[in-house]
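Re: [help] complex structure
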Amino acid sequence: MPNYQARVLVNLRPSVLDPAGEAARSAANRLGVTGITKLRIGKSVELQIEAADEIEARQRLELLSDRLLANPVIEDWTLELEPCSSTS
Amino acid sequence: MPNYQARVLVNLRPSVLDPAGEAARSAANRLGVTGITKLRIGKSVELQIEAADEIEARQRLELLSDRLLANPVIEDWTLELEPCSSTS
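Output below.
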């Protein structure tokens, strides 16, 4: 069965405050890294999935992102999917 | 001054265990999403930075990633940088 490599990026919705990101931005200034006008911290989930075809892999990962990886009330997610060269 | 859009992906090194990722993989199975052979959770940091040119922006963000965003003992990071269309 083909193997697919995926990445799900989970980010806070623009309307949601990100205190951790703000703290990192302040810390960057103290470190001497200036000019940062925006800094928001999200999650990056790297997956490999076995599925019959790319459509099925995408469907499963969309379900997973909606139900498990992201909280749709406060987070958006994007899915990047590509066939994996390594077989399993 | 030009504005650059950047993303820093921070992931655990392959040799480091990821209990949160394992828990998510088990939860995916219970949710009925089968076929996931790998799942690792990292951070995605979205930034905007003002700098004189792309080289300077890259240097500052590399310093930031090494010193603040990632723990180089257990984490790797990759930087994606591109000019930002919106001016500030």
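Chain A has a mean pLDDT of 94.
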